Amino acid sequence: MRTNFRSMLVALAMLVVGAPVLAAQAPLKIAYVNPRQLLAEAPGADQAQQMFEREMSGFQQQVQQLGDSLQTAITNFQRQAREMQPERRDSIGQMLEQQQMAYQQRVSQLEQQAQQREMQLAQPIMQNIQKVLGEVRQAEGYHLILDIAAQGSPVVAADTTLDITQQVLTRLKAMPAPTLPAAGDTAAAAPAARPAGPVAQPAGVRRPPPRR
Fold first, then answer.
1. 42: pLDDT confidence band, cut at 50, 70 and 90?
2. CA Rg, the chain, in Å?
3. Residue 54 DSSP code
4. DSSP-derived secondary structure letter, 149
5. Of 59, 88, 135, 177, which one has the greatest count of Cβ atoms within 10 A?
6. Is the pTM of this model over 0.90?
7. pLDDT per position as a tens digit, 108-153
């Protein structure tokens, strides 16, 4: 899956599984995987990415329309302000400040909805990955399966023969693609409202930082 869904990697790190280890048992059997690759190639990943981008385009259009309308109002005000009576100028200035706050609140709301929808689409894919990791760990007798790509991972070098990413992918790709949740309340954008809030350069919805 491409950039947007890489922000799910932190959540995916929680899927790396292990079993309790007793000191008296046989030596640890450890393997590692690259969750970035698993999430990119898992069945359903491309469809989820396409759904997400399609739904987000509506968010981006809404914000762009609100921002453009607001920017026009600001530009007109700045051009005419010198000719206005002080009371009228102050009144319009305060109104635009209120619109700016409302605009920023709307953008923040849409960003939150985008985050929730991204997690919603990724969840069934991540559940399949979790299932396969558990099956492989149990079948092969691994005590631990590490996330080699985790941010802050203590692993700085590893024997490549311990990499079971392809083994996990083989099992994963044999599974049917999960049913992805349809757009519901989380993804539905609210009806466009009056522009509310001046920004110098209105932009589209900014999703939470892809955590690569």
1. very high
2. 24
3. H
4. T
5. 59
6. no
7. 998 999 999 999 999 999 999 999 999 999 999 999 998 888 777 7
